[in-house]
UniProtKB/TrEMBL annotation:
Family per record: Belongs to the isochorismatase family.
UniProt keyword annotation of Hydrolase present: yes
Isochorismatase-like domain location: 14-209
Protein name (record): nicotinamidase
Signal peptide: none
Pfam family membership, one: Isochorismatase
Superkingdom to which the source organism belongs: Bacteria
Known EC number: 3.5.1.19
InterPro entries: Isochorismatase-like_dom, Isochorismatase-like_sf, Isochorismatase_Nicotinamidase
EC category: hydrolase
């Protein structure tokens, strides 16, 4: 059991949105992405603060692929905060932007941060609006102001937004507990490498919230 002091802990639901699940098959569905709700809710029991991040994309942007063949190809032009093209996903005002059914309503979280709002920026981590990690979304400051030390992290997808968010939190000085039971990803080999990288940075990795124990 990993002892967690609930009074100083936060639970972070990273991009747990319908656009990353089979509920929206034409967006960026992660296999099993809609099955993480129980674990996200379970880990939140061990936290005083619960936060979430959401991709809040526009419906037109240079990074949106016009065909499947364009997905993961480099974005042309002078766009320092874009890397590769993706299918349109989690567009504001669409079902894909909504949280997965079974999670709390957005007003029930202590903080919900939006990212990817600017069409010329496509961040992965939830702590910054840009790829250079210089424009804060405010979540790091919010957690520090609330006296948070460990952050229990889950969400979608493991090797992208979850990995980058956990890395940003570690670099900001938080202890990170990565709950694999609350995550799903796309590529097993890339996931394994991402998780090992987080371990090397000091993250504690657990298989489920059942491994947690309130101090």
């Amino acid at each position: 059991m990993k002892k967690i002091d609930r009074n100083t802990s936060a639970a972070f639901d990273v991009d747990a949105q319908r656009g990353f699940t089979p509920l929206c098959p034409n967006e960026l569905p992660v296999p099993g992405g809609d099955t993480i709700v129980e674990e996200l809710n379970a880990q939140a029991v061990f936290a005083r603060v619960r936060v979430a991040s959401k991709d809040c994309h526009p419906n037109k942007a240079p990074w949106i692929a016009s065909s499947p063949a364009e997905v993961l190809t480099p974005v042309a032009g002078n766009y320092p905060n874009l890397d590769v093209k993706w299918p349109a996903h989690c567009v504001v005002g669409t079902e894909g932007n909504l949280l997965i059914p079974g999670l709390p309503g957005e007003n029930d979280y202590d903080l919900v941060v939006g990212k990817g709002i600017d069409p010329e920026k496509h961040p992965y981590g939830a702590c910054y609006h840009d790829l250079a990690n210089s424009e804060s979304t405010g979540v790091i400051e919010f957690l520090k102001e609330n006296g948070i030390k460990p952050v229990i992290v889950g969400g979608l997808a493991t090797e992208y937004c979850v990995h980058q968010t956990a890395t940003q939190l570690l670099n900001a000085g938080f202890a990170v507990v990565l709950n694999l039971g609350a995550c799903r990803g796309l590529d097993a080999q890339v996931i394994e490498k991402a998780v090992e990288g987080l371990r090397n940075l000091g993250a504690i990795v657990i298989e489920s919230a059942a491994e947690l124990n309130a101090a």
